[in-house]
Design goal:
Length: about 625
């Protein structure tokens, strides 16, 4: 069966123009009929032979000038309707002008009665627009007749929600039927948009239970985080796919496309309300300063660069040994903030002479130290590298910051430094101790920030799960009961900047990480968010705890061992103080021991410096047993 003309190709412009002319002819005749109550006087009939050509010719000229016939009718938009309205309006105003000229300058009569002009205007606009909309609807009905259909609920009945609905209407490969809008605004309840009911969010459960909803789209940018989580959780329970509409600033050329409506990510379920920074105070301590960021090519370092740039630093010194990522970051920052803001330094923080030359040349006033090794299992089998980078590298930077009188040194640490059970955590704790002890003997204010896992960072489990899900699984979880604290990369970096602002030196700031998350539950939610069914489409495999891995992480985030600050998400940890000369001597000894590649001697030295360091699931547990045995004997 052949497809209709409107389905197979664009309607020729001459056909559209002929139909538009026919509408004008019909509208003018209708206007006269309505004006004279369907009994047109004989005197008016006598004027038709020149009135109709005059109106028809004027309209034809305006259509040709305004090019109302050139739009693709199947994709008629509000702009096309606006063009039709304006062209028709100017034509009617031309009739009014001609009437006034004839009345006042010629013979005190009108070419066309004003009432006929008004009726013809409204009739023409309505019929021209209706014709285009009808063609568009017919086209999409034919186009979507054989397409897969799905029922959709849109959260947000504002402008973004309406645009989302119209975007869905334009999709041809899937027939989207919007069955309801949800909105928190009580003024919109029990009303309709394009014939679709608006419900309060509490009706969501009822909608999901009584309808086989396939897709829920969140089209409201100001939705509170808790409400967002609630909606996503309810949708996932009913196997409903959830998507987000990006903010209008991210739309392509100001237009929303179906491809831009993205699936909800696990970050939307684990993220929290936006942090309010003290931007005035932060601007005071960053603006006009030379700021160095180590590990600038990493996930945390890179985000710090992006968040610090708007505060008008004099210069950003980006230090990293990863050539390509630091190059890409530099290009991005230069394109947004100017060619003079950044200076890229390809260097290894463990190289004392190289870093000294960097400090001497650029004289940084603020240093954010994010360079570190952070993968627990890798450092457990490569402990010398953990000591070289996390301990020796930090000591090098701390010493140089003191020598060159850096104003503030902000070190990025980890929750794994609390009662460490692995090499990585212990190395970071040693770095914390040295920075804290150095504070008492230096002009520089040394500040440490400590937080848990960061969503989407290079060391996070999230990218691994995404990769495994993409590849069809299995998704690997080390233990069914393992839990972790999470925050987003932007949130973590905002708190680092805030802590750097409020720090007076010597503090270890810890961040409110919220509730710990069960990794097994997170894996299940990521599978559901991917539109897959656990046990059918993909499996979860428990692999066992890795070397050095804890079942539960700690933050010391309780009132007994923390001090509150003016920021409700930042606290100061109560930790023992260390003698600078002693810890310096111990760390020099530790650094010397790693050069011999004798793991046992080196790790034993780490346990001396950090007595609470007890290895778990590690070959180094035997060192703890020996130490305990020796202490018992003594």
């Amino acid at each position: 069966m052949p497809k209709p003309l409107l389905y197979t190709r664009n309607t020729p412009t001459w056909i559209i123009l002929i139909i538009d002319f026919a509408i004008v002819f019909f509208s003018l005749g209708l206007a006269y009929l309505v004006r004279f109550n369907f009994k047109i006087p004989e005197s008016e009939y006598l004027t038709f032979y020149w009135v109709f050509p005059f109106v028809f010719g004027s309209r034809a000229l305006s259509f040709l000038i305004g090019k109302t016939y050139q739009g693709m009718i199947r994709y008629t938009s509000s702009k096309d309707a606006q063009r039709v309205f304006l062209v028709t309006l100017f034509g009617s105003l031309f009739f009014v002008l001609c009437n006034l000229i004839k009345y006042y300058l010629i013979d005190t009569t009108f070419i066309v009665p004003f009432s006929v002009i008004i009726i013809e205007f409204f009739s023409t606009v309505m019929l021209l627009a209706s014709f285009r909309i009808a063609v568009k609807q017919i086209f999409f009905e034919f186009k979507n007749a054989s397409a897969d259909s799905q029922l959709v609920v849109i959260y947000g009945a504002g402008e973004s929600g309406v645009i989302t609905k119209r975007t869905l209407d334009r999709v041809t490969r899937i027939r989207n039927e919007v069955v309801a809008f949800l909105d928190d605004n009580p003024k919109k309840r029990h009303k309709k948009i394009e014939g679709i009911n608006i419900y309060p969010p509490k009706y969501l459960d009822n909608l999901l239970e009584k309808n086989e909803i396939d897709h829920l789209i969140i089209a409201f940018q100001g939705i509170p985080m808790e409400r967002r989580k609630e909606i996503i959780e309810k949708s996932l329970k009913h196997n409903v796919r959830v998507s987000n509409v990006p903010p209008p600033s991210d739309w392509l050329n100001g237009e929303l496309t179906y491809k831009q409506i993205e699936k909800v990510k696990i970050e939307d379920l684990l993220g929290r309300s936006q942090i309010k920074l003290n931007r005035v105070e932060i601007n005071k301590y960053i603006s006009g300063k030379v700021v160095m960021i180590t590990g600038a090519a990493g996930s945390i370092g890179g985000e710090l660069v992006k968040q610090i740039s708007p505060f008008n630093p004099q210069k950003l010194i980006l230090v990293d040994q990863a050539e390509s990522p630091i190059y890409d970051l530099d290009i991005d920052i230069r394109s947004k903030y100017g060619e003079q803001l950044t200076e890229v330094v390809v260097a290894d923080v463990r190289n004392n002479s190289r870093m000294k030359s960097v400090f001497k040349e650029y004289r940084p006033q603020i240093v954010f130290h994010a360079a570190a090794y952070k993968h627990v299992p890798l450092m457990e089998t490569n402990p010398t590298e953990a000591v070289r980078t996390n301990v020796q590298g930090t000591k090098t930077l701390v010493d140089l910051s003191s020598e060159y009188e850096v104003e503030k040194f902000i070190m990025i640490s980890t929750d794994k430094a609390v009662n460490p059970t692995n090499i990585m955590g212990a190395s970071k704790r040693i770095a914390e101790i040295y920075a804290q002890a150095a504070n008492e003997h230096s002009y520089t204010k040394f500040i440490t920030t400590r937080f848990g896992n960061v969503l989407g960072s290079n060391g996070s489990v999230i990218p691994l799960f995404r990769k495994q899900i993409t590849e069809g699984g299995p998704v690997t979880v080390t233990h069914k009961d393992i839990t972790r604290f999470f925050m987003t990369i932007p949130e973590a970096c905002q708190l680092v900047i805030e802590a750097g602002n409020m720090g007076e030196g010597g503090e270890i700031f810890i961040f409110d990480m919220g509730k710990s998350v069960k990794i097994m539950d997170m894996a299940k939610k990521m599978i559901a968010l991917s539109g897959l069914e656990l046990g059918t489409d993909i499996q979860i495999k428990v692999t066992g705890l890795r070397p050095g891995e804890k079942l539960f992480e700690e933050l010391l985030a309780n009132e007994e061992n923390t001090v509150k600050t003016h920021h409700n998400k930042i606290m100061i940890a109560k930790v023992r103080e260390s003698d600078f000369e002693k810890i310096k001597k111990d760390i020099d000894s530790l650094i010397q021991s790693q050069r011999n590649q004798n793991y046992a001697i080196m790790v034993n030295k780490m346990k001396e410096i950090v007595p609470e360091f007890k290895s778990k699931n590690s070959v180094f547990e035997k060192l703890d047993r020996i130490r305990e045995s020796n202490s018992t004997v003594n």
